[in-house]
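Please, structure for the following, as tokens.
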Amino acid sequence: MGEKFSATSNYLVSFNTIALVPIWIENNLYTRVIENHTEFLVKMKPSAIIKKSLVFYGTSYKHATFFSRESIGRLHKLPLMISHDFGVPLIMMPTLSAESEGNIWISFSAVDRYSINSHSQCLVHFTNSQVLPVNVSHSTMCRQFVLSYFLTNHFQKTRDMMNHPFSQSKLTYTPTRKNPKR
């Protein structure tokens, strides 16, 4: 890595999070956190940060996985909605299996585009102009991006339905038959 980073023992994913990159230091798995304007190390595995963040925002890994499966299907390497704020979902997408020690978690909203370098390595270009080489193919990253889009779309459609409940739909009046007087 060559650079010196500050280290902390606690972290929660936020809308400033760009990526959670696993890094081995002295036989311990840490996370290199990349945010919009800073980078630092966290003495936790990326998967532990995701799980802790889900609990903090009021859900669990199990429930987030269930929501993703219900939204986009029973697929491998599902993106997860960590939280949402004013109808904007915070979605993190994995590069590998969620429990894999080499898995990088990437914020869907922070991705600008993907490219391939001269070594056939996939590069993720972020909206803040940073570039991150990832450990999967270009087509895998495109798949993860599309799945994250579908998850976002499903969330937004669900929110729209909640904003227009049945009680606000136009009712048609059907006269009831009156019983004759006796």
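The longest helix spans residues 138-163. Residues 90 and 115 are 23 Å apart (CA to CA).
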